[in-house]
Specification:
The protein has a three-stranded antiparallel beta sheet with strand order 1-3-2. Strands 4-5 form a two-stranded antiparallel sheet. The protein starts with 5 loop residues before the first strand and ends with a strand. About 10% of the residues are buried. The protein is elongated. It is α+β, with helices and mostly antiparallel strands and about 80 residues long. The chain has one domain.
Protein backbone atom coordinates (compact mmCIF):
# COMPACT_ATOMS: atom_id res chain seq x y z
CA UNK A 1 0.00 0.00 0.00
CA UNK A 2 1.34 3.43 -0.93
CA UNK A 3 1.84 6.47 1.22
CA UNK A 4 -1.47 7.84 2.52
CA UNK A 5 -2.36 11.24 3.91
CA UNK A 6 -4.52 11.12 7.02
CA UNK A 7 -6.61 14.19 7.82
CA UNK A 8 -8.68 15.22 10.81
CA UNK A 9 -12.26 16.34 10.21
CA UNK A 10 -11.16 20.00 10.37
CA UNK A 11 -8.34 19.42 7.85
CA UNK A 12 -10.69 17.57 5.48
CA UNK A 13 -13.23 20.37 5.86
CA UNK A 14 -10.64 22.93 4.74
CA UNK A 15 -9.71 20.85 1.68
CA UNK A 16 -13.17 20.02 0.38
CA UNK A 17 -14.89 23.22 1.56
CA UNK A 18 -17.59 21.45 3.56
CA UNK A 19 -18.44 22.34 7.13
CA UNK A 20 -17.09 19.89 9.73
CA UNK A 21 -20.64 19.32 10.96
CA UNK A 22 -21.77 18.37 7.43
CA UNK A 23 -18.92 15.88 7.18
CA UNK A 24 -19.75 14.29 10.53
CA UNK A 25 -23.55 14.29 10.21
CA UNK A 26 -24.27 13.87 6.49
CA UNK A 27 -21.26 12.42 4.69
CA UNK A 28 -19.77 10.06 7.26
CA UNK A 29 -21.19 6.54 6.98
CA UNK A 30 -23.31 7.40 3.92
CA UNK A 31 -20.74 8.66 1.40
CA UNK A 32 -17.56 8.27 3.46
CA UNK A 33 -17.24 4.65 4.55
CA UNK A 34 -15.19 3.40 7.51
CA UNK A 35 -12.24 1.30 6.41
CA UNK A 36 -12.22 2.88 2.96
CA UNK A 37 -12.47 6.66 3.41
CA UNK A 38 -11.66 6.88 7.11
CA UNK A 39 -10.23 4.91 9.99
CA UNK A 40 -10.39 5.00 13.78
CA UNK A 41 -6.79 4.33 14.80
CA UNK A 42 -6.16 2.04 17.75
CA UNK A 43 -9.90 1.47 18.24
CA UNK A 44 -10.36 4.98 19.58
CA UNK A 45 -12.95 7.66 18.96
CA UNK A 46 -10.73 9.87 16.78
CA UNK A 47 -11.51 9.72 13.07
CA UNK A 48 -8.79 10.13 10.44
CA UNK A 49 -9.78 10.52 6.80
CA UNK A 50 -7.75 9.01 3.93
CA UNK A 51 -7.26 11.94 1.57
CA UNK A 52 -6.19 10.01 -1.55
CA UNK A 53 -9.28 7.77 -1.51
CA UNK A 54 -11.65 10.69 -0.93
CA UNK A 55 -10.01 12.76 -3.67
CA UNK A 56 -10.24 9.86 -6.13
CA UNK A 57 -13.90 9.16 -5.33
CA UNK A 58 -14.83 12.86 -5.60
CA UNK A 59 -13.32 12.96 -9.10
CA UNK A 60 -15.15 9.77 -10.13
CA UNK A 61 -18.43 11.12 -8.83
CA UNK A 62 -17.90 14.42 -10.62
CA UNK A 63 -17.26 12.65 -13.92
CA UNK A 64 -20.32 10.46 -13.42
CA UNK A 65 -22.61 13.47 -13.07
CA UNK A 66 -21.76 15.00 -16.45
CA UNK A 67 -24.42 15.01 -19.14
CA UNK A 68 -23.82 12.23 -21.67
CA UNK A 69 -25.89 10.47 -24.33
CA UNK A 70 -25.01 6.81 -24.92
CA UNK A 71 -24.53 5.90 -28.60
CA UNK A 72 -25.43 2.61 -30.29
CA UNK A 73 -21.78 1.79 -31.02
CA UNK A 74 -20.90 1.97 -27.33
CA UNK A 75 -19.53 5.52 -27.44
CA UNK A 76 -20.82 8.52 -25.55
CA UNK A 77 -21.84 11.95 -26.81
CA UNK A 78 -21.01 14.61 -24.21
CA UNK A 79 -23.38 17.55 -24.19
Amino acid sequence: MGQQTYLTTAELSARIKYDTRTIRERLKDSVLIEGLHYIRPFGGRKTLYVWETIEQDMAKSSLGNSFAIPLANGGVLHG
